[in-house]
Amino acid sequence: MLFNLSHLEAVEIYTRREDGPAMLTEVSGIDAGLAVIKQSPNADGNPSLRRGGVILKFSREDGDGFSLSFAQHKGDTIIAVIHDDGRHSDLFRINSEREPCPLF
Predict the structure, then answer these.
(1) How far is residue 89's CA from residue 104's CA, in Å, rounded to a whole number?
(2) Distance in angstroms (rounded) separating the CA atoms of residues 98 and 93
(3) Which residues contact 70 (CB under 8 A, 6 or more apart)?
(4) Which of 55, 63, 42 minimizes the C-alpha distance to 88?
(5) What pLDDT digit, counting tens, does each position of 59-87 carry?
(6) Where along the chain do its domains lie?
(7) CB atoms within 10 A of CB 14
(8) 102 and 80 in contact (C-beta within 8 Å)?
(9) Alpha-carbon span 55 to 53, nearest angstrom
(10) Can you tell me the distance from the alpha carbon of 94 to that of 37, in angstroms, rounded to the nearest whole number?
(11) Which residue has the higher pLDDT, 82 or 3?
(12) Parallel, antiparallel, or unpaired: how do β-strands 53-60 and 65-73 relate?
């Protein structure tokens, strides 16, 4: 199971007004109890093409890792898994009518 034996390692927060410049705030070292916070004007990796987004990065005890991303697109909020090999799997979409739409 993907989420079993996982540990939160880092959080990336992308703040951005629609189509404006983005700011990345990274919090790392969470699982080790040594949180480090960095900020940079960097939109690379933002799960949302036009707005802000959040990525939670996890490691697993078997050595693999994965991330959960939260993005907004045309009024929908999309929650997805990003696998270590770069594959994306949408888990959940909340549409503009505020109705949850499970994708699995």
Answers:
(1) 10
(2) 10
(3) 47, 53, 54, 55, 77, 78, 79
(4) 55
(5) 888 888 899 999 887 777 888 888 888 77
(6) 6-102
(7) 24
(8) no
(9) 7
(10) 30
(11) 82
(12) antiparallel
Give the tokens for residue 53.
Answer: 């987004």
Tokens read off for 71: 């993005």
The model's pTM is 0.79
Helices (H) then strands (E): counts for the chain = 0, 8
Q: What strand order describes the sheet that includes 23-28?
A: 36-40, 23-28, 6-15, 53-60, 65-73, 76-83, 88-94, 100-102
Residue 93 has phi, psi (to 5 degrees) of -135, 130
Q: What's the Cα-to-Cα distance from 92 to each of 29, 49, 70, 75, 84, rounded to whole Å?
A: 27, 18, 10, 14, 19
Name the token pair of 2: 């993907």
Residue 6: name the closest of 67, 70, 55 by CA.
67
pLDDT digits (tens, 9 = 90+) for 4-21: 788 888 999 999 877 778
Q: Look at the chain and count its residues.
A: 104
Please give the torsion angle defined by the CA atoms of residues 7, 10, 54 and 50, in that order, rounded to the nearest 10 degrees.
-140
Rounded distance, CA 94 to CA 38, Å? 30
